[in-house]
User: Which sequence fits this backbone?
């Protein structure tokens, strides 16, 4: 038997990111690498700085110091050598926004933040495609219906407004809207956060399936260790703006090393 | 008697230590393993023995990456070289578990509301296998383990302990991993299904899988073990011996 | 008129607006902010257009003012009178005779010629406003050419009505760059924006924005490949002049359901009747 190929190219190289609003408010000296095909969970209590870090990583907020480098060539051939490596906050705003809109995706905790509530489900799903220049209504519609099926929404409701959908359906619509351009890197901020427990389970399963089928790389922020266990390959534990421990998800949850992680893990209620 | 001499080792463990440091308990240190070594060959099932709490599951969890390796070496051997697990970066474990190290734990941990058959076939899908083919293999395994067909499409959350265990076993064996860690897979099974598991272990041996298992049921242990590795209160073991049991599977 | 500068606005203000207009002409379709003044008429009555007209009007210019194509509606009449009083310029209803035409909601049917200036009154200059309330964000979207949302609106039209139901203020792309609101003209008039020999200026009084389409500029109406841009057409012809190719208004003639269709461009209709007769 041959040695398995375990090397994964680095997709996102986060170097010494600091973004502080005040002492221990925000995130400080964060260093890590996200590999292609990996789901990295960032866990911690509210105020730990995980959401600030996500905003910096997702290109929404410039750091005080440090770099976020996106290696576009990771795992595939890239013709344009200049574009093979993008320093998120060194490239122009136009390039960064295009990157966020077309190659990356962001799933908000509250679907209302990620959806256009005033236009139909189909228009929501089609928007990123139209931004890419797709100009064929029939194709946009077909793609919209295909994605609705993919996220287990009734394609017959393609013309309905998101506000007529339940919270769980809205979240699935937001995910379809985000993934329709097949982004390589997706950021998720508490994607199951505001949902009923029964709805959460279905969404978690769907996310796992999509991650596998699309080969997504994901940075997932959550305070819910059970969600982290089911979705994340690897975890990063944050406290007061700093990373206290990183490792394989099962290791962090089954054999936490840091005092704080032990406290966090032992504080979870298990039914 | 099964001969190990010309089988190549798949796994070697040497000088393994494990200590838990509980910060919440005032920095309490608990030694759970001291200087453990073992060798495991392809096509062999090594059974860990010893009283409950002696660290058998701990060893499996260290081999599966669930527990940190404080000290010692764990090496996997391949035709083209070895892989040191104690230095393996966290990101690499995902692929290793998908392709090399399989684990059947006592407890089923799955996404709620996912159908049993989907739970079972997931390890194949993770490798990019064809969905229809994977489903068929999952169904075949579930049928072998006598899980009634009407339950295949139900989420196992509401199943009995024995039924969940069978879903778990099917999920563990479907991937045909070259190294299988078996943590009491037969614990809550009836005699018929225990026999099925014993047969599955036999088939895994036949295809060259190396297995490290914990079986409390002595009858099962005697039927699957090629060798026994007793763990005692010295918290470790340096050698494994071949038990005085005959091969029950030919 | 005593006590007022020529064309009502003081010369400093007119220079400021003319500078803004030069910038607008230099960047076709780009919205230029300007220091809009209070005019002696309420917002919504064409204060933006009036300020632009006041700034470009010369003593020798002949002015035409139309509202919905007609020279004789209240808005057109009052603006025409305003400039007669404050500038003393000659006015006309003949499209061909005019140097400057201020308009609300139409482009004349008679083709414009080089040298003429068409001044549009604009209520909402920002075509992205329907989807993005933040001015800062819409400016950034223009700067970065993030125009995907414009097609979201058209998509929504087709999804709801089976066709692009936007019939006026139909968004256009100017010179392949800026998406622009052509003011609430019927989409019937959109093709006249493209490559027009006249200079077209747009003024929004409330929002204090102006923009321009220089002569002979490429102007495309946004659409989908499988739902191409189309203009309205009528089964009827004009009941007065018989035209089968102009924009028609439906006029109710009695309370028994009687109605007729007539050209909305009164000058065009009258001219044709003169020709036809």
Assistant:
């Amino acid at each position: 038997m041959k040695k398995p190929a375990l090397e994964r190219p680095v997709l996102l190289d986060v170097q010494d990111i600091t973004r502080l609003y005040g002492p221990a408010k925000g995130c400080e000296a964060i260093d890590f690498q996200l590999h292609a095909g990996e789901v990295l969970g960032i866990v911690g209590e509210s105020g730990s700085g995980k959401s600030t870090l996500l905003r910096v990583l997702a290109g929404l907020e410039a750091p005080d110091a440090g770099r976020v480098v996106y290696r576009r060539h990771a795992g595939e051939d890239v013709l344009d050598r200049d574009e093979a490596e993008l320093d998120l906050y060194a490239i122009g705003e136009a390039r960064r926004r295009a990157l966020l809109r077309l190659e990356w995706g962001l799933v908000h905790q509250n679907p209302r933040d990620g959806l256009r509530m005033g236009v139909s489900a189909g228009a929501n799903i089609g928007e990123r495609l139209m931004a890419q220049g797709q100009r064929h209504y029939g194709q946009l519609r077909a793609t919209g219906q295909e994605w609705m099926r993919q996220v287990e929404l009734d394609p017959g409701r393609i013309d309905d407004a998101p506000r007529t959908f339940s919270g769980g359906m809205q979240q699935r619509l937001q995910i379809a809207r985000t993934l329709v351009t097949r982004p390589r890197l997706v950021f998720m901020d508490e994607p199951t956060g505001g949902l009923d427990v029964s709805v959460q389970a279905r969404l978690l399963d769907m996310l796992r399936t999509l991650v596998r089928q699309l080969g997504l790389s994901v940075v997932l922020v959550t305070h819910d260790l059970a969600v982290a266990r089911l979705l994340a390959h690897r975890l990063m534990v944050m406290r007061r703006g700093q990373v206290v421990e990183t490792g394989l998800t099962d290791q962090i949850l089954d054999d936490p090393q840091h005092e704080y992680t032990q406290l966090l893990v032992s504080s979870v209620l298990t039914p | 008697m099964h001969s190990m001499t010309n089988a190549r080792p798949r796994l070697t463990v040497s000088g393994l230590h494990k200590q838990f440091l509980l910060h919440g308990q005032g920095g309490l240190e608990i030694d759970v393993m001291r200087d453990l070594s073992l060798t495991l060959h392809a096509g062999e099932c090594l059974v860990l023995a010893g009283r409950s709490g002696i660290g058998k599951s701990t060893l499996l969890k260290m081999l599966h990456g669930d527990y940190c390796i404080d000290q010692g070496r764990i090496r996997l051997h391949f035709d083209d070289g070895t892989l040191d697990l104690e230095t393996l970066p966290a990101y690499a474990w995902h692929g290793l578990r998908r392709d090399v190290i399989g684990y059947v734990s006592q407890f089923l941990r799955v996404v709620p509301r996912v159908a049993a058959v989907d739970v079972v076939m997931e390890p194949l899908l993770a490798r990019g296998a064809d969905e229809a083919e994977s489903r068929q293999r999952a169904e075949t395994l579930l049928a072998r383990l006598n899980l009634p067909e009407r339950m295949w499409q139900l989420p196992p959350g509401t199943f009995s302990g024995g039924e969940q265990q069978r879903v778990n076993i099917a999920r563990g064996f479907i991937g045909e991993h070259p190294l299988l860690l078996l943590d009491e897979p037969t614990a809550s099974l009836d005699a018929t299904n225990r026999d099925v598991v014993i047969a599955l272990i036999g088939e895994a041996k036949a295809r060259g899988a190396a297995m490290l298992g914990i079986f409390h049921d002595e009858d099962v242990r005697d039927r699957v073990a090629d060798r026994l590795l007793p763990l005692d209160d010295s918290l470790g073991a340096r050698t494994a011996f071949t038990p005085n049991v005959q091969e029950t599977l030919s | 008129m005593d006590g007022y500068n020529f064309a009502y606005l003081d010369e400093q203000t007119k220079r400021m607006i003319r500078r803004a207009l030069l910038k607008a002409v230099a960047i076709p379709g780009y919205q230029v902010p300007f220091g809009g003044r209070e005019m002696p008429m309420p917002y919504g009555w064409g204060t933006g257009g009036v300020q632009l007209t006041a700034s470009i009007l010369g003593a020798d210019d002949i002015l035409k003012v139309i509202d919905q194509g007609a020279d004789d509606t209240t808005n057109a009449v009052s603006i025409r009178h305003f400039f007669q009083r404050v500038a003393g310029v000659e006015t006309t209803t003949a499209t061909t005779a005019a140097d400057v035409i201020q308009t609300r909601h139409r482009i004349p049917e008679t083709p414009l010629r080089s040298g003429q200036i068409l001044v549009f009154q604009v209520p909402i200059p920002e075509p992205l406003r329907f989807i993005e309330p933040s001015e800062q964000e819409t400016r950034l979207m223009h700067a970065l050419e993030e125009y995907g949302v414009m097609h979201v609106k058209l998509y929504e039209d087709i999804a709801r009505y089976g066709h692009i139901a936007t019939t006026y203020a139909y968004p256009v792309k100017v010179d392949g760059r800026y998406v622009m609101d052509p003011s609430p003209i019927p989409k019937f008039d959109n093709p006249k924006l493209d490559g027009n020999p006249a200079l077209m200026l747009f003024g929004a009084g409330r929002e204090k924005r102006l923009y321009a389409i220089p002569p002979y500029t490429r102007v495309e109406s946004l659409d989908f490949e499988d739902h191409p841009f189309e203009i309205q057409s009528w089964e009827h012809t004009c009941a007065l002049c018989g035209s089968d190719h102009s924009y028609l208004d439906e006029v109710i003639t009695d309370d028994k359901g009687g109605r007729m269709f007539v050209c909305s461009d009164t000058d065009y209709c009258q001219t044709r009747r003169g020709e036809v007769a």
